[in-house]
Amino acid sequence: MEQTNRAAKINRTTRCAVCYAALLLLTLALGAAGLRFGSVKITAQEIISALGGEKSTAADIIMISRLPRVIAATVLGGALAVSGYLLQTFFANPIAGPFVLGISSGAKLTVALAMIVFLGNGMTLDSAGLIIAAFVGSLLSLGLIIPVSGRAQKNYMLIVCGIMIGYICSAVTEFVVTFADDSNIVNLHNWSMGSFSGIGMDEAGVMSAVVLAAMVPTFLLSKQIGAYQLGEAYARNSGVNIRWFRLAVILLSSLLSACVTAFAGPVSFVGIAVPHVVKRMLGTAKPRVIIPAAFLGGACFCLLCDLIARTLFAPTELSIGSVTAVLGAPVVIFIMMSRKK
């Protein structure tokens, strides 16, 4: 019996190691493809030279446009997946996510308001301002969702309420945009469609720092998350301070999703689909294993979607949200059908 348990543990460890290696290699491969392919194809030698500091037209394309975009897709994709995982834990709902619960729409509304106010008065809105505005919107949306979650008898009721909140926020955003200046409308339209384009190295550095700052405490909460997933009573008996734990999860998930909305606009289905795919791959539900893998999975998914968005009909570029929806929605449908069975 002991040998059987030991063999099963070794098999699980091997499976996790293989999955982690595959996710890491896939992230690197998709990142390299993101640097090479686009409206202008760049050779591998030109990429190496550009990263080495050599000046050329190809180097400018890589360093100014493509490298920040690859970093953004990697960091923000991972942030979305982890945010979705935290929300699924918090609400004990397998299809909870920043987009479905209206959190992304709330962040979109406050960022749009901030952009109109600042740009309309001839002021610039820096990265910190965008993140703060999106964070406030995320918290406001969660503030509306949390009371509903306590009264919802069924999981679908929470999702329906989240979708309705998302529609309301989107409608108010459209209403606000109608009163913006023409130049502001162009900026808002491009951002509201969802895209990793237009992000520079400075913004990439800021988002990386913010996401890293949120990921560290998220990983440190792995033990508490595992206990909470077994029920509030079990978590409380295990010594988890439920009040502070729930507050931490709210703040961390809001900050992660806000960072995405601030820089890339609303991006759908990543937060719902990726955590479930990762769990199936790893064959475990342990948070300390799932959280890093979810980050890598989200990075892979967004790198792939961004590559499709800008190469499928190049030089015309699709919105990242449309591609993530096409690829992510079938996964969500499969999850719902599996739960029904």
Average pLDDT, all residues: 85
By CATH, the topology is ABC transporter involved in vitamin B12 uptake, BtuC
Q: Percentage of helical residues?
A: over 70%
What characteristic shape results from the CA principal axes? globular
Q: What is the CA-CA span between the terminal residues? A: 32 Å
Q: Which structural class matches the secondary elements?
A: mainly alpha
The DSSP helix count reads 14
Which CATH top level class fits?
Mainly Alpha
Poorly predicted residue ranges? none
**Which percent range describes the beta-strand content?**
under 5%
Number of strands: 0
CATH superfamily: ABC transporter involved in vitamin B12 uptake, BtuC
Rg, nearest Å: 20 Å
Name the descriptors:
single chain; 341 residues; mainly alpha; ABC transporter involved in vitamin B12 uptake, BtuC; 14 helices; 79% helix
Care to describe what's here?
It is a single chain. By secondary structure, the chain is mostly helical. The chain has a single domain (2-340), classed as ABC transporter involved in vitamin B12 uptake, BtuC, CATH 1.10.3470. 79% of the residues lie in helices and 0% in strands. It has helices at residues 2-36, 44-51, 57-91, 103-120, 127-151, 155-177, 182-192, 201-220, 222-229, 232-237, 242-264, 270-282, 287-311, 320-340. Helix 1 runs parallel beside helix 13 (287-311) and helix 4 runs parallel beside helix 6 (155-177). The protein is globular and about 60 Å long. The mean pLDDT is 85.
